[in-house]
Amino acid sequence: MIRFNNDYNRSCHPAILKALEDDFENSYPGYMTDERCQRAREEIKKYLGCPSAEIHFATGGTQANAMVIASALRPYESVVCAETGHINVHETGAVEHTGHKIEALPGARDKISAGALDTYVGKARSSEITEHITQPGMVYISFPTEFGSIYSLAELKELREVCDRYGMYLFVDGARLAYGLASPKCDVSLADLCSLSDVFYIGGTKCGAMFGEAIVIRNDSLKKGFRNMIKQSGAMLAKGWILGIQFEPLFRDGLYFEIGKKAVDYALRIKKAFNDKGIDSYIDSSTNQQFVTVTKKQAEILAKDFIYENEDELEDGRKVIRFCTSWATTEEDADALIKAVEAL
Amino acid sequence: MIRFNNDYNRSCHPAILKALEDDFENSYPGYMTDERCQRAREEIKKYLGCPSAEIHFATGGTQANAMVIASALRPYESVVCAETGHINVHETGAVEHTGHKIEALPGARDKISAGALDTYVGKARSSEITEHITQPGMVYISFPTEFGSIYSLAELKELREVCDRYGMYLFVDGARLAYGLASPKCDVSLADLCSLSDVFYIGGTKCGAMFGEAIVIRNDSLKKGFRNMIKQSGAMLAKGWILGIQFEPLFRDGLYFEIGKKAVDYALRIKKAFNDKGIDSYIDSSTNQQFVTVTKKQAEILAKDFIYENEDELEDGRKVIRFCTSWATTEEDADALIKAVEAL
Amino acid sequence: MIRFNNDYNRSCHPAILKALEDDFENSYPGYMTDERCQRAREEIKKYLGCPSAEIHFATGGTQANAMVIASALRPYESVVCAETGHINVHETGAVEHTGHKIEALPGARDKISAGALDTYVGKARSSEITEHITQPGMVYISFPTEFGSIYSLAELKELREVCDRYGMYLFVDGARLAYGLASPKCDVSLADLCSLSDVFYIGGTKCGAMFGEAIVIRNDSLKKGFRNMIKQSGAMLAKGWILGIQFEPLFRDGLYFEIGKKAVDYALRIKKAFNDKGIDSYIDSSTNQQFVTVTKKQAEILAKDFIYENEDELEDGRKVIRFCTSWATTEEDADALIKAVEAL
Amino acid sequence: MIRFNNDYNRSCHPAILKALEDDFENSYPGYMTDERCQRAREEIKKYLGCPSAEIHFATGGTQANAMVIASALRPYESVVCAETGHINVHETGAVEHTGHKIEALPGARDKISAGALDTYVGKARSSEITEHITQPGMVYISFPTEFGSIYSLAELKELREVCDRYGMYLFVDGARLAYGLASPKCDVSLADLCSLSDVFYIGGTKCGAMFGEAIVIRNDSLKKGFRNMIKQSGAMLAKGWILGIQFEPLFRDGLYFEIGKKAVDYALRIKKAFNDKGIDSYIDSSTNQQFVTVTKKQAEILAKDFIYENEDELEDGRKVIRFCTSWATTEEDADALIKAVEAL
Fold first, then answer.
1. Domain of B321: which CATH number?
2. What is the pLDDT of residues A53-81, one digit of tens each?
3. Are residues B69 and B206 in the same domain?
């Protein structure tokens, strides 16, 4: 069986395992105050174009999301996201657990448009019952989204403009950032993300690391006390250098971007194979997740040799299934799947 | 100007003012441990058919809602309600502030149907990602709803059955209960509400009291520590007897039901006047809130003498406005409005 | 039986009942946006010397405390108070319920000294493990304290100075403020409290009102969104004018100060009677609460005609009991108690 | 420089690194549903004597503590611990962040005694103001404590008895459990801990693992929904098998106990060296943490070659410093320190 079910089914990229092995004899101070985290921060900063940005590490995405959001909002403020936003549907109420309402932007299935956001927040701000409703204080988007879509630079700038107008923070969840940046459609750089968002994170867990996300805080007003937030959230890894050791090789010599590129290349070849066979994409993704609409019969055939994820069942009986590539996907894996698709 | 904008624009029913005056010289122990609260509880219990029910008082509905919900749920559990549920759209995230997600039942604009609830919760319980999503632990409905609708006895029994199947509590917000029970369409009694819900509250603020809601807890598992919940929620009125003094006259000799009946009679006469004039009801309410769809011109004319509430603006330019009667509405008020409608 | 057990055992001062009666026929907009609240705010402001202060009303002290504290702190920040601080020992964890730690200043049984505060916060700010501990963001004091003590103007200025040095807010709980301001030892005015604190509240419940506290926010950074906080906390009274109607007569013509003065006069006469009899004060209070140390026999004798509060039992078997006067205490009540003490 | 500052300054025990290397090529399902976590659970269960216990993994202690406590308590319930309890002083209010008060048992500097607990909780349960205070719902102890002390079997049974009497859960934080079980004074087994507590955790981070704690839930009432709690708390590691891979070798063939024994042997030799030199232990620890009271001069000399932790400064100018051994401490390290102590 070949796993295409997700992008976190293998321990880590060999370069990271090697870094952990090489470091085995060393001892460090705890809680991410060590030189390895510092070196990792410096490697990442080379791409940010923002020397004053602060970089913190978390062990996973849900943790990073809840922590960043709770840190930014006053008690009566909410965070706005797409209906399918990971924080809204896959994190067991972690954000609400910190006391904040998530407001799913009506109609925003995948991406958030600046126009819809403007209308929605404008209404909340000017409503006669403005004090009886939560006030959006932050916008959360994913790059790429849950369906593998990406925002263009122009779209991000428009969102930024709306956020500025209403005094909201813009937070970008980059759990799969490597794959977004590697999309042939992407015209956004890490430096763009840094300058257009107030805070974002660079996903490690799904992009080659054993675990870990690097949170980049650009906006000064979000920096104060963030290490206290990390500790309070149970996210302060005692042996913090384990995170630094992972992010340093990911960003030294551009490994992170290579990982993304290889996985996206395979994903697009797989997508083409499906489409060439007359099997539609459920959504037009240009990143490492491909959603296709297959018959039950086709799903069964593919399930013999491949593990994929079931997403939905359409009214006509067809199924939406997801194939996901990652740093660990090999050319042989991709070829095997493509061959199987061609034989459907 | 005559106020039809809401049902809480006058201090209190004369019987309640009199009770407060009569009691002026007495002194009591604090925090609702006094004999006046006890007497009010006894008056209410005469209608419940459930001697073991516990009755507590709160000063307002948002407070009662947040407190009851927080008391009932484990941290990862959510409360399900209609999209227009008061807790979802008019309480500034008070429920989320206690750490719990509100899940608006997709498509439920007004009432919740047992079928839709069954489908929704069934999916949450059996999902492959059941641990990655909040689990509905309580269903919240209003009686009457935000649009003045009421559930039939049969509908309540169906909801109860779904709740039992999935181990969920059923909580009924009765902020406007007097007006619901007085609806000519209502086949539900206070005793029915008590036996079919796990906990519900009897609204005072909108039904004749100066302020106050009476929370009725039938389910034993919700009783433990509820007075601690009240104190923690900032809802433990030091001079608790002020609440008892209000609820005793409301339930002695059936004043609560009279108040409801009179207000609903006026509301239905007003509704008929609009409909007779060819002005549609936005929703078919049989209680004290009437939503009608008027032209801008009509809205302006009515605004000269009457205060109503603006609800929405339709795409064709018409407006949805609300007229609300209450214990304080007089025959003269109603007649004046009806006459104005006839003259439109 | 004559009640000296607390200062909230009678409904309200006659002037307030009259104001409620006089207002019975009027109707108002809801949620404290009415003219009566506005007039009450103006009456209070005459004493504050701070035209830009914002005044909000809450229904009780626990509510006011939790709301103000939650509004002011970031998630990892704590509030510092005396060990006996009301928020620490009598509010069922209402502050912790909003997510914040209360730090009882070690050794501070009654008042907080600027020196002890400086040492404590200084250590927290400079500790090697500063990120592993909560950071004091606010200091909470009561005026008068739980034991009836008052801070001098000099002491308040010293606390203010420490708060400024460490970037902390100073919050004064004035649940019994009328009695504190009336103390013969008091050299602090309402205007002083307003200028030296960031936010404080003027107690109504224990000082003549049926219920209600007036929260005064001087510091601009605490003003934004406070009405949303009120709603979220379940503290937004629908018929908000009921609060305005109470506070207006309390502050028009100085009734609030008269109430305080009369109650303190009686309390000091009672104190003198005990002390003259050789019965020690447990703590030297100059306000309306008097704590005395009596033998069990004496306690039993007094319990025949008077209701007081049991506070503690000393190792030598004596009891600490509290006698509390209020706006409702009459000269006859005080004389009866004094006579009984003289006869012990 | 030789690090004795803590027990988490090296990545992991060689057996764990090897296990991670050996597993590099395998792929697994996510979120701790894999076979490696299952095998680790089975290895651990061999020592528990409780087949129905549930075992979950967390990435760190603060996370485990907050999650377990929030899972067990109703909103108004508190957790009782020693004044020095890790949750009380070193976790940045993580427990309060979940809404619960921590009550430090007065006078309990190190261990909690059953007698003091009984008195304290008895008072809370029977107080006249029982509804105005938080109610202890759980007792938190560490084994060993922050000062390296251990509870005897008899002491644990007494605590259990008090917990049963008042309906409280008993939770044991075993962050340093390996070192506690290895103490020559220890008469408690893993099976004892399991049967006497409701829930406890077996520390990995400080006992040989790269990171991770194994939470053992014995009490059925705490099991429901715990995986949802894990996800909500941001503690659901995507690549969950990384935790299983670490705990399996720790418990197969008793490595965990060997690690503890070796570190404690070194610690006791170090302690003896200090005591023989006339340098007192600050507290009589029989585990891997040794607290000694040295002069400033002695502290300076030792600081030349060894990293230790500064704990406190006594009034006479002496310092309390901590030396900590771990799985990574070598015989050479210990000998070097002993030699240095002898030369003081």
1. 3.90.1150.10
2. 999 999 999 999 999 999 999 999 999 99
3. yes
Distance CA D186, CA D261 (A): 12
Last residue within a domain, chosen from B237, B255, B273: B255
3-state SS track over chain A = CEECCCCCCECCCHHHHHHHHHCCCCECCCCCCCHHHHHHHHHHHCCCCCCCCEEEEECCHHHHHHHHHHHHCCCCEEEEECCCCHHHHCCCCHHHHCCCCEEECCCCCCCCCHHHHHHHHHHHHHCCCHHHCCEEEEEEEECCCCCCCCCCHHHHHHHHHHHHHHCCEEEEEECCHHHHHCCCCCCCCHHHHHHHCCEEEEECCCCCCCCCEEEEECCHHHCCCHHHHHHHCCCCCCCCHHHHHHHHHHHHHHHHHHHHHHHHHHHHHHHHHHHHCCCCECCCCCCCEEEEEECHHHHHHHHCCEECEEEEECCCCCEEEEEECCCCCCHHHHHHHHHHHHCC
List Cα–Cα distances, B42 to B35, B38, B223, C109, in angstroms.
Answer: 10, 6, 18, 43
The answer on D105 and D166 residing in a single domain is yes
Domain boundary among B233, B255, B277: B255
Q: What is the ipTM of this complex?
A: 0.96
pLDDT at B128: 81
Chain C residues lying within 8 Å of A232, measured CB to CB: 75-76, 134
Is the domain of D189 the same as that of D248?
yes
* Residues of chain D positioned with their CB less than 8 A from the CB of C97: 75-76, 99
Query: Are residue A57 and residue A147 in the same domain, yes or no?
Result: yes
Gap from A30 CA to chain C (nearest CA, Å) = 11
Question: Same domain for D194 and D332?
Answer: no
- Does C134 contact D89 at a Cβ distance shorter than 8 Å? no
The pLDDT of residue D128 is above 90: no
Question: Could you tell me if C91 lies within 8 Å of chain D, comparing CB atoms?
Answer: yes
pLDDT tens, residue order, chain B (344 aa): 899 999 999 999 999 999 999 998 899 999 999 999 999 999 999 999 999 999 999 999 999 999 999 999 999 999 999 999 999 999 999 999 999 999 999 999 999 999 999 999 999 999 888 999 999 999 999 999 999 999 999 999 999 999 999 999 999 999 999 999 999 999 999 999 999 999 999 999 999 999 999 999 999 999 999 999 999 999 999 999 999 999 999 999 899 999 999 999 999 999 999 999 999 999 999 999 999 999 999 999 999 999 999 999 999 999 999 999 999 999 999 999 999 999 99
Number of domains in chain B: 2
CB contact under 8 A, C310 and D92: no
Confidence band, pLDDT 50/70/90 cuts, at residue D37? very high
Tell me the average pLDDT of chain D. Answer: 97
State pTM to two decimals: 0.97
| Percent helix, percent strand, percent coil in chain B, to nearest 5 | 45, 20, 40
Name chain C contacts of D133, Cβ cutoff 8 Å: 89-90, 92
Chain A residue with CA closest to D225: the answer is A92
Q: Which domain holds residue D317?
A: 2-7+256-342
Q: Are residues B185 and B248 in the same domain?
A: yes
Specify whether C251 is located in the same domain as C109: yes
Specify the CATH number for the domain of residue B76: 3.40.640.10
**Do C23 and C36 touch, CB atoms closer than 8 A?**
yes
Given this model, what pLDDT does residue C92 score? 97
Query: Can you list the alpha helix ranges (DSSP code H) found in B167-278?
Result: 177-181, 190-196, 226-232, 241-251, 255-276
d(CA C202, CA D265): 62
Nearest-CA distance D122 → chain A (Å): 31
Residues A173 and A243 grouped into a single domain = yes
Residue count (chain D): 344
